[in-house]
Specification:
The chain is mainly beta and 92 residues long. It has 2 helices and 6 strands, in the order βαββββαβ.
Length: 92
């Protein structure tokens, strides 16, 4: 099976270790967030949407667990703590 091909580009991302309260406060409800992937030819490995409620920031995404297969809200910092970084897109 032939893939889509690789198109070289520079990806600007926020490293996982740099995601702190200051960066978290910059995120708005509706921002698209991709989990950055360091693999060649793969920009992001998973995507979701930022949602703010209950005075917290959440990552709304489709669960990748076969047993779950539904939309879930995870605390943003908890979900991202072990990820290599994030790519943020704001549709203004």
């Amino acid at each position: 099976m032939q893939g889509l091909g690789i198109h070289p580009r520079i990806i600007n991302y926020i490293p996982g270790k740099a995601i702190n309260e200051q960066e978290l406060n910059r995120l708005k409800t509706g921002d698209y967030v991709g989990v950055y992937s360091p693999l060649e030819g793969l920009d992001v490995s998973h995507v979701g949407i930022v949602v703010r409620y209950d005075e917290q920031v959440w990552f709304r995404n489709a669960s990748s667990l076969i047993s779950n297969r539904k939309v879930v809200d995870s605390q943003f910092m908890e979900y991202m703590h072990s990820k290599p970084g994030i790519v943020v897109l704001r549709a203004d």
